[in-house]
């Protein structure tokens, strides 16, 4: 739309009473049951009860736009309601400072200044105010002024769908959709005098992704999480004490950097199999499994002592049914722990060791957000991590063990893909070196790393940090969870939001299983 004024300076500020005469002389009301402008007393009351909710746009010293709002409780507006009800018949007695919804009651732009995105400025102000006040959402009843042209041939629902698909243009609804509002429902008789909309309105909502429900005891989650990864050197150990001398060295080192997590590789304890090299491969791996519960208990002591969440890599584990599995443990710094399982075992693990694939697919809550853990080969199956993403996973940990560069490349490339498609961080850690006296563990190749989505708040190539290949070391990197929240809503592309769930879906298949134990509760 062409404008008739060129603007040299734009200002956005809160509404003042001295602005009233200019507003009343320049604008007609859009909402409400009459064309008369808001009275002096009504504007004064809005400024008195909620001053930061009333805002004007000024172009070269002239007020050219205004937005008015109140705060209400969600239960009041989540269903059918009218404009008169939500405004208390325009008395604004419905304003509730302890409510959780910023409700828009008026927005107008002078006709000569439309098409300059001035309305968008006021909406951005509202969004910032919603976040600042920790409100759940912005809501309002949106008019559909072009609906009267189509009312004889389609219902409001069909009209909205055609506006959404750009088959029909509606000046109000198109603007709201482009500003990230979504239609919750149709409201009948919202404005009885709105003949253009045929008395219909769309209940529109913009969700505050940073909203935190009020609790008696608020749990603080760190926005920045520090991850430490151990690129583990395979070397001979004669006992579990010798093994944990090296383990504690790494836990100590990583915790000195105030890390929140430390990640160990898959089968990091394999050197202990050397004493069983006289046995067959299947017998030696089951002998190694005898150490697993002791290793878990030793890790718990370290998690508490060094105040760090430990992801223990993986190790063989014999369940009560006699089956052999590849498992690991999330051990929180408070001493509680949970087991995770390798779901997809490699053909070699089946052939040489007789391993079984696990059945538990779930995320874990921590004091640094929700995490997922998949073991090595698992990361090559995108369905698995998509299920974890659907459960709210923010960081994916991947302990791995690969012997050749092409095997490593599969893990690395798939891990980076999982970060992009699931809009999460992915940390991988593997082992280096060789174990000449252990069957099926000859050589190791690894480069540990942290991957991110590829968008403006993140590294261009999605690589947050990388270790030196094939060298024993630790890698420490920070990840910002707030950036993930921004990406989910404002990303250049939105891989989770834009999925065509009307065409396909990924879902868990019901599987009878005994819940895995969680200790410390």
From TrEMBL:
InterPro entries: Acyl_CoA_acyltransferase (IPR016181), C-N_Hydrolase (IPR003010), C-N_Hydrolase_sf (IPR036526), GNAT_dom (IPR000182), UPF0012_CS (IPR001110). PANTHER family: HYDROLASE YHCX (PTHR23088:SF50), NITRILASE-RELATED (PTHR23088). Belongs to the carbon-nitrogen hydrolase superfamily. NIT1/NIT2 family. Residues 10-171 form the N-acetyltransferase domain. It holds the Pfam family Acetyltransf_1. Keywords: Transferase. Residues 225-481 form the CN hydrolase domain. It comes from Hallella mizrahii. Gene3D superfamilies: 3.40.630.30, Carbon-nitrogen hydrolase (3.60.110.10). One of its GO terms (molecular function) is acyltransferase activity, transferring groups other than amino-acyl groups. This is GNAT family N-acetyltransferase.
């Amino acid at each position: 739309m062409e404008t008739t004024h060129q603007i040299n300076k734009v200002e956005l500020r809160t509404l003042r009473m001295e602005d009233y005469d200019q507003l009343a002389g320049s604008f007609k009301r859009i909402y409400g049951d009459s064309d008369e402008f808001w009275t002096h007393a009504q504007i004064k009351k809005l400024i008195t009860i909620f001053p930061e909710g009333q805002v004007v746009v000024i172009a070269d010293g002239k007020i050219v736009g205004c937005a008015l709002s109140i705060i209400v409780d969600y239960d009041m507006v989540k269903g059918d309601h009218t404009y008169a009800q939500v405004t208390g018949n325009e008395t604004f007695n419905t304003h509730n400072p302890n409510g959780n919804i910023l409700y828009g009651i008026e927005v107008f732009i002078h006709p000569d200044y439309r098409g300059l995105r001035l309305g968008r400025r006021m909406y951005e102000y509202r969004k910032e105010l919603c976040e600042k006040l920790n409100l759940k959402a912005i809501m309002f009843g949106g008019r559909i002024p072009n609906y009267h042209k189509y009312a004889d041939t389609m219902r409001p629902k069909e009209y909205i769908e055609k506006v959404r698909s750009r088959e029909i243009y509606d000046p109000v609804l198109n603007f709201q959709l482009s500003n990230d509002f979504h239609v919750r429902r149709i409201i009948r008789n919202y404005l009885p005098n709105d003949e253009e909309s045929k008395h219909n309105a769309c209940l529109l909502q913009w969700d505050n992704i940073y909203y935190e429900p009020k609790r008696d005891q608020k749990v603080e989650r760190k926005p920045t999480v520090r991850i430490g990864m151990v690129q583990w050197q395979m070397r001979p150990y004669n006992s579990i004490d010798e093994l944990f001398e090296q383990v504690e060295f790494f836990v100590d080192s990583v915790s000195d950097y105030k890390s929140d997590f430390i990640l160990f590789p898959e089968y990091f304890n394999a050197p202990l199999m050397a004493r069983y090299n006289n046995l067959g491969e299947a017998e030696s791996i089951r002998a190694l499994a005898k150490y697993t519960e002791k290793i878990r208990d030793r890790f718990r002591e370290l998690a508490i002592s060094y105040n760090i969440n430990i992801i223990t890599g993986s190790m063989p584990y014999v369940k009560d049914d006699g089956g052999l599995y590849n498992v690991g443990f999330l051990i929180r710094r408070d001493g509680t722990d949970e087991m995770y399982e390798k779901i997809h075992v490699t053909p070699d693990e089946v052939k040489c060791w007789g391993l079984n694939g696990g059945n538990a697919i779930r995320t874990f809550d921590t004091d640094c957000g929700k995490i997922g853990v998949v073991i090595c080969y698992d990361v090559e199956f995108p369905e698995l991590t998509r299920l974890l993403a659907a459960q709210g996973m923010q960081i994916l940990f991947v302990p791995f063990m690969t012997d050749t560069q092409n095997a490593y490349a599969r893990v690395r490339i798939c891990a980076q893909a999982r970060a992009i498609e699931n809009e999460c961080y992915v940390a991988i850690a593997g082992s280096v070196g060789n174990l000449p006296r252990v069957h099926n563990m000859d050589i190791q190749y690894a480069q540990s790393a942290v991957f991110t989505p590829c968008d403006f708040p993140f590294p261009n190539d999605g690589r947050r940090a990388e270790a030196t290949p094939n060298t024993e070391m630790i890698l420490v990197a920070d990840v910002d969870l707030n950036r993930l929240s921004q990406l989910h809503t404002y990303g250049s592309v939105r891989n989770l939001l834009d999925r065509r769930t009307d065409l396909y879906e990924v879902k868990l298949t019901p599987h009878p299983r005994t819940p895995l134990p969680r200790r410390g509760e």
